[in-house]
Amino acid sequence: MDVRNIKVSLEKAKEWYNSNNPSLKEIALQAFTKEELEQIDLKEIIDLLLDYRCELTTTQRIQLESLKNRKDITKVSAPKLLRILAIYFNVDWKKKEGEEGYFFYKNERGFMNTCSPKVMDKYWCISSHTSVCYPTLIYFKREKDCKEAYNIMKSLGKLDALYTDF
Q1: Over the stretch 71-103, which tens digit does the pLDDT of each residue have?
Q2: Which of 98, 71, 87 is CA-nearest to residue 138?
Q3: pTM above the 0.90 mark?
Q4: Which of 4, 30, 75, 149 qualifies as a FRET site for 156, CA 20 to 30 Å off?
Q5: Do 29 and 48 sit in the same domain of this protein?
Q6: CA neighbor of 145 nearest in space, from 92, 100, 97, 102
Q7: What's the CA gap between 83 and 3, in Å, rounded?
């Protein structure tokens, strides 16, 4: 069998990895790690939001445009970054009383409240609200999106900054 080497960009490998073709997925995994292929690029998220993902107010659009042009987008404040992720994952969904919405929080004391949280790390939990909707909480429509946002914030070292970055 004749063997050849190919060059593939990360973007193309992500496309192959996310396709329904197992052969392309295998090739993508030979070129990049699973973590690299599943990593979400914040500039990519902002492009999606600006292009078509959801309706944005003029203020949101201006803020996203200015973020997109920053050299180091990870220097964005933690709450703003979490809000961007919520817009990305939730698309047009906004939490209302009576709808379940997921959020993550830090629980340093280790006590469990009536919300039945799911522990993700030593001090970080995911929980949900249905009958209430707090205006200061950033909610996610699906638990898996909340976990993904948590993982992104963790990988950027922004979790503790949620409590100090305003």
Answers
A1: 666 667 788 888 888 988 888 888 998 999 999
A2: 87
A3: no
A4: 30
A5: no
A6: 102
A7: 47
Residue 79 near residue 166 (C-beta atoms within 8 A):
yes
Q: Both 32 and 46 in a single domain?
A: no
Which domain range does residue 6 map to?
A: 1-39
Per-residue CA distances from 66 to 13, 88, 158 (Å):
29, 17, 20
- Residues with Cβ within 8 Å of residue 83, at least 6 apart in sequence: 138
Burial (CB < 10 A; 0-12, 13-18, 19+), residue 14, is: buried
Verify that 131 and 66 share a domain, yes or no. yes
What are the tokens at 66? Answer: 């200015």
